[in-house]
Structures are given as C-alpha cells and as structure tokens.
Amino acid sequence: MSVIELLQSSDPIFVSMTIVLGLLVGSFLNVVIYRLPLMMERDWRSQCNELNGRDSAVLPTLTLSKPRSACPQCQHAISALENIPVLSYLFLGGKCRACKTPISIRYPLVEALTGLLSGIVAYHFGFGWPCVGALLLTWSLVTLTFIDVDHQLLPDSITLPLLWLGISFNLFEQFTTLETSVIGALAGYLSLWIVYQLFKVTTGKEGMGYGDFKLLAALGAWLGWSSLPAIILLSSLVGAVVGISLVLIRRHERDIPIPFGPYLALAGWIALIWGDPIQMAYLNWAGLA
After folding, report:
1. pLDDT digits over 15-72, tens only?
2. How far apart are CA 281 and CA 80, in angstroms?
3. Rounded to whole angstroms, what are the CA distances from 82 to 86, 104, 157?
4. 83-97, 179-193, 235-249: lowest mean pLDDT where?
5. Would you tell me the crossing angle of helices 261-285 and 228-249 to the nearest 10 degrees?
6. What pLDDT, in 10s, does the model give residues 262-277?
7. N or C: which end of the chain has fewer CB within 10 A?
8. C-alpha angle with apex 89: 85 to 93, nearest 5 degrees?
9. How many CA atoms within 13 Å lie on the side-chain side of 22?
10. Which residues have a Cβ under 8 Å from the Cβ of 32 and sit 6 or more positions away?
11. Apex CA 198: angle with CA 195 and CA 201, to 5°?
12. Model pLDDT, residue 256
C-alpha cells in the first residue's frame, strides 16, 4: 500500500499527519510573520532613498531563508534540534540554550495553533484537493493575523496571491462555482471600500486600511459571495466586543487603531469550516428558508 493510499484509507492517520505538517508549517510561519514586514520596510526605505536621490545603506541580506535563525540577544545560531515545533521550546524551558534569554511564548503558540487548525481542516474535508486549498487558506490567514496584530499591515504579497488562488481552485468548483467566486471577490472588496468611504466622509477619519478590502475580496473568492454577510457580521461583532473590552478593561486609547484583519481572518476561517450551517441558521432566522 502506497503512502497516498494509506492516507486515503485512514482518516486518523491522515489527520495526524496533517497536524504534524501544520506544526512544521507553523514554525516557518513564525519566520514569515517576523521577517516579511522587515523586508517590506527595507524595500520602502530603498525606494524612498532612490526617489530622493540618496544612496541606500548596504544592509545584511534578509530573506525568508537567509540569514539562519538566531537568538536576537546573543546571535546563537538555532540548530535543527532547537527548532522542533513546540517540543524544543519545552525542552529548552522557554530560554535560549546559550544565553538563557527568555523565548517568546508566541512562537510555540503559533506552531500549536497552526497544527490544531490544520487538523480540524483535515478532519472536516478529508483527503483531497479541497483539503489542500483549505490548508493553504488557513496558513495564509494565520500569517496575516499575526502580521496585522504586530504592524497593522496586511501585505499585498499574501492577500493578492490568496485572491487569485481562491479563484483558481474554484475554476474546478472546489468550494463554490467560478461565477460566485468572482462575484465574491468583487463584492468583498467593494463592500468594505464603500463603508470606508462613507466613514471617511462622515468623520473625516480612515476607519480601516485597504488591506482589509483585499482580504475580504480574497475570502469572497474562496467561499463565494453568499458567505460575505456572515463573515462581515461575525467579524464586526467580534471586533466590536474586543474593541469595547480593550477600552473599558485595559483603558485602550480610543484614537489608537485596532487592526480589523484578525477578525476578518477568524470569521473567514469559521465560514470555511462551518459556513453552510451558519448560512442555513441565518436564513431560517430571517425567514428566508
């Protein structure tokens, strides 16, 4: 029996292997979350210097693969045994092996979260192309969530390929039809763009960034236009609750913006897994079904 046949025939093995894969991918996502904004900032600075006729400073190479991961405090190069998802953090006691500087708990949490969500996706979709697409979408949403939390930024280098990838999968109707996918991309972008313009005209302030429009367009491309009302409603509800809680409990300044991308990502992932039951419940509540 081949590996593919084994994964097809045994759901427990397939889910378990996908969880392991998710843990490994989560380790790589930590690198993307940390380095991609730095790479973008370097590129912006270089472009600004070029426009102003200034020479850009020569900086060490920084890509997603170079340089090798190291402790930010003592520059101790992290070995393969120190980079095993979750387990290495536990074995090292949450500290650098060389200088004993504490390692952020977020690294193993991102790995564990990615593994858990990957397992849920594998259990829900089973072996096949829809699972492959759902995993790619899930990993992208995890990355976008943490980048937006850290930098209030949703990189085009992730959101735009994600949009086209959703349409590509739906060329073969993996999640919805091509027609509803394209309409979903258009409606997703325009719906938040209109809200943004109305808010700006009314208050004179920008209520959200263009990255949010692109992320909702990508979710519409993956899940179709019919998923958008549930995604917008759920993300707005969670965002309002969290925002009010921050203001009341942590005395968060009202003028300090709160990223909306994480709530869109969470709502989009929920719609990916439980979209049909949510839509049916909504239609029944509205008396439309």
Report:
1. 999 999 999 999 999 999 999 999 999 999 888 888 888 877 777 889 998 888 888 8
2. 48
3. 10, 14, 29
4. 235-249
5. 120
6. 999 999 999 999 988 8
7. N
8. 165
9. 29
10. 64, 143
11. 150
12. 66
The whole-angstrom separation of Cα 99 and Cα 111 is 23
Those residues whose C-beta lies under 8 Å from the C-beta of residue 79, and which sit 6 or more positions away, are none
Q: List pLDDT tens digits, range 175-224.
A: 999 999 999 999 999 999 999 999 888 888 877 889 999 999 999 999 99
At 119, which amino acid appears?
Answer: G
First to last CA, the chain: 46
Q: Which residues contact 192 (CB under 8 A, 6 or more apart)?
A: 208, 212, 213, 216, 232
What is d(CA 223, CA 225) in angstroms, rounded to the nearest whole number?
Answer: 7
**Helix boundaries (H) for the chain:** 3-9, 11-51, 87-91, 106-125, 129-151, 156-170, 178-203, 210-223, 228-249, 261-285
In the block, tokens 């095993």 appear at: 84
The token pair at 150 is 């850290």
Joined tokens for residue 196: 């943004």
Residues 150-153: contacts with CB within 8 Å, 24+ apart? 150/33, 150/37, 151/37, 152/209, 152/257, 152/259, 153/37, 153/40, 153/209, 153/211
Give 137-175 pLDDT, tens digit per residue.
Answer: 999 999 999 999 999 999 999 999 999 999 999 999 999
Residue type (1 letter), 232: I
Contacts of the segment 246-250: beta carbons below 8 A, 24+ positions apart: none
Contact 165, 136 (CB under 8 A): yes
